[in-house]
From TrEMBL:
One of its GO terms (molecular function) is ATP binding. Residues 215-242 form a coiled coil. Keywords: ATP-binding, Coiled coil, Kinase, Membrane, Nucleotide-binding, Phosphoprotein, Transferase, Transmembrane, Transmembrane helix, Two-component regulatory system. It comes from Cognatishimia activa. InterPro entries: HATPase_C_sf, HATPase_dom, His_kinase_dom, HisK_dim/P_dom, HisK_dim/P_sf, Sig_transdc_His_kin-like_C. Gene3D superfamilies: 1.10.287.130, Histidine kinase-like ATPase, C-terminal domain. It comes from the Bacteria. The keyword Aminoacyl-tRNA synthetase does not apply. This is histidine kinase. Its EC number is 2.7.13.3. It catalyses: ATP + protein L-histidine = ADP + protein N-phospho-L-histidine. Residues 248-458 form the Histidine kinase domain. The chain crosses the membrane at residues 9-30, 154-177.
Length: 462
């Protein structure tokens, strides 16, 4: 039982109530002793009144008066005269004297504890003030055996009452804690266990109902967490299904494009000047489409294939990208230019680098055309000591805030309405596969700047 919250609370409540009662017990015993002695003084004073009324009383009546007052001697001081009113033989000499006219709490407590823990009976003198001002003082002698017995009986009654109060209080608190705290906590645990069994089932999400503020806050936090997790699991399932569908489409599309390659081989043999000029670009485009489908199939399995690093003629690759984009621009006032040194070669996978640069230029072109304002896209490159730097700069409208926050995250970093953000996520992964880095240098109303860093390495390794 002590392993449960309510059981521990019950045990601690009993302990704390008993400690409180013990702290009350000490002054209570001191007060009981004081009242006991005062009552004996009062009885003695009443007994002495009989002698004042009739100065001649027999010994039998005197003994009966002292027995009823539970004292041995009574001394009364009236009008500065100290007079022995009643007396009887004492069993022992007087050991101590206690004056109750000057009562200090600590003194009373110390005297009471000393009497309680001293089992030897003694004869003590007690001095006090007579009630109703019937003299200057009254003094009695009493036997402490009866005093200590009365104190022990009173103390046992106090302890027994304390135990009953402790158990009763603890039981009430136990029931209250189970009702107000433990039962709602068990309800939350039950919701968590039920949700863990089927996290995709939105019906198992907890509905806050606790009346205690702290518990309700915990329930609301759990509800928010479960809602987000359920949504994430659903999205993950949809992405898995989408991945499977894309893989199937890519597989069939690859077969179709492979067939198209066979026809383009014959087109290249045409003598028509226009066909001769356009055929190589058509062949390159279909080849890249086939490679993209194969890459998509590989990505659906686990990840992008490792880059096949070769020496790539960067000016030719950039020109192919820009030529393809110029066809998509049409009559729109958009300038596509490059500033790549002639004959510059980089160490990269040609197909993957083409996809990255094409993706960046395409995103810029689509954003500029959507904005409807004339602009320019510039692809530049330079060779540094340790790496090659390729920049794609445009003078378009800049990236939206949401796109900046989730720039390279799939399905979150889309830069235009309807975009998925997959292009930038895949591009960043491809560049990381080269040991490089794709980063956003800046984006505002004046345009956007992306930078690709490719490490040089040693050409002898190729």
């Amino acid at each position: 039982m002590l392993k449960t919250l309510s059981g521990r609370f019950l045990f601690l409540t009993i302990i704390f109530v008993m400690l409180a009662e013990i702290l009350i017990f000490v002054p209570s015993i001191a007060r009981f002793r004081e009242d006991y002695l005062l009552s004996r003084l009062e009885r003695a004073q009443i007994a002495s009144l009989a002698l004042l009324a009739d100065e001649m009383i027999d010994e039998k009546l005197e003994a009966e008066l002292l027995e009823n007052a539970e004292v041995y001697n009574v001394v009364l001081r009236r009008d500065e005269i100290r007079q022995l009113m009643l007396s009887s033989p004492m069993p022992a000499p007087i050991d101590q004297t206690f004056d109750l006219r000057d009562r200090k709490a600590m003194t009373l407590i110390m005297d009471a504890m000393a009497r309680l823990f001293n089992p030897e009976p003694e004869v003590i003198r007690v001095i006090g003030a007579p009630v109703r001002e019937a003299g200057l003082l009254i003094e009695v002698t009493i036997w402490t055996k009866d005093l200590r017995s009365a104190m022990i009986d009173y103390g046992l009654n106090i302890l027994l009452l304390s135990a009953v109060i402790s158990v009763f209080t603890a039981t009430l608190l136990f029931v209250a804690v189970r009702t107000i705290l433990v039962k709602p906590i068990k309800g939350v645990v039950g919701y968590m266990q039920s949700y863990a069994a089927a996290p995709e089932d939105a019906r198992r999400i907890i509905q806050p109902s606790a009346g205690v503020v702290e518990l309700r806050e915990a329930e609301e936090a759990l509800q928010s967490l479960q809602t987000e997790l359920t949504s994430a699991l659903r999205q993950k399932e949809r992405l898995a299904q989408l991945g499977g569908a894309v893989a199937k489409v890519s597989h069939d599309l690859r077969n179709i494009l492979t067939s198209a390659q066979l026809f383009t081989d014959r087109i290249e043999m045409s003598e028509d000047p226009t066909v001769k000029r356009m055929a190589p670009k058509l062949v390159n485009s279909i080849t890249r489409a086939v490679n993209l489908c194969e890459g998509t199939l590989a990505y659906g399995k686990a990840e992008e294939p490792a880059p096949r690093l070769t020496q790539v003629n960067l000016p030719e690759l950039v020109e192919d990208v820009l030529a393809s984009e110029r066809l998509a621009v049409g009559d729109f006032d958009l300038s596509l230019a490059d500033n790549v040194p002639g004959g510059m070669e980089v160490r990269a996978d040609a197909e993957q680098l083409y996809r990255v640069i094409s993706n960046l230029v395409r995103n810029a072109r689509q954003a500029i055309i959507s904005a409807g304002k004339p602009a320019e896209i510039m692809v530049s490159a330079e060779a540094r000591e340790d790496d090659w730097v390729i920049q794609v700069v445009d003078t378009g409208p800049g990236l939206p805030l949401k796109a900046k926050e989730h720039l390279f995250q799939p399905f979150q970093g889309g830069a235009r309405k309807g975009g998925t953000g997959l292009g930038l996520a895949i591009s960043a992964e491809l560049i990381r596969g080269h040991g490089g880095k794709l980063e956003l240098l800046g984006s505002d109303d004046a345009g956007t700047r992306f930078q690709i860093l490719l490490p040089k390495g040693d050409f002898a390794e190729i």
